[in-house]
Amino acid sequence: MVRFAKWHPLVQFCFLLCVLLLTCLSRHPVPVALSLLGAAVYLLLTDGRRSLRSLLCVPVLVALVGGFNFLFAHWGVTVLFSRGDTQFTLESLIYGCFQGGIFAGVVLWLAVFGRVLGSDRLLAVTGRAAPRFSLLFSMTLGCIARFRENAQQIRLARAGAGLAKEKPLHEALDQFSTLVTLSLEGSMTTADAMRARGYGKGRRRVYDPFTFGVADGVELAVVLLLSITVLAVALTGGLTFYFDPQLEWVTLSPLGAAAAGLLCFCPTISNVGEALQWRRLKRKN
After folding, report:
1. Which residues, in sequence order, are CB contacts of 117 under 8 Å at separation 6+?
2. Which residue of 5, 128, 149, 175 pairs with 116 in a disulfide if CB–CB is 3.0 to 4.6 A?
3. Are 182 and 150 in contact (CB under 8 A)?
């Protein structure tokens, strides 16, 4: 079940952009819930128990943002209780939980694309339009991973050599100093290697090992069609929900909800379809 990971990088990038815009700009709970569910189901199907750590962010973010908005935003007409002159309302609590769901959805979709959209795919998408930015971005992502790995190695090496200090602050400062020194040495090595390979001299050519085929065109067309459908329904008032002054479910277009659901479940549908096709071919043989 890796069909979605084999999509063309341009299609993956467009899907990420569309689903993030759907999640962030939606003002109706149903599309946000579908976005959360689509990302969670994909992570569970592909990573299993390893995805539970990412999924734990959903209740944490919903509780944190909902509680923060409940404590500091006091608009709405449904008063749950009062403390002096301050009224705590149901509308502020629900809206805070809604905003927390948006944040959690963004985190889950970024976790999904952290697994399928590597640096090589990102360079294939943005390498021609913004080569310097794409190179800097991919090197930054790699630097973060190496930073964490080097920090772990430094901590274990100091503990094994008996150099660890009793005071946590002093030990953390020593580890950080060693880590910075190691990172500067690595950056100098990278700069020398880039200079030796002629970086910055002449016209830069982009290596793109990915070919855009008919299937990729169909997938991109489906993603754009579903996104345009959701946008058109939202602009015509088909996805309307009011949080202020009171909770009011105004409209929910079946077409808009179906398009949002299909868009958010595109990765899962693609992987499940490939698995069913593979099972059918095995039965024939």
Report:
1. 9, 12, 13, 16
2. 5
3. yes
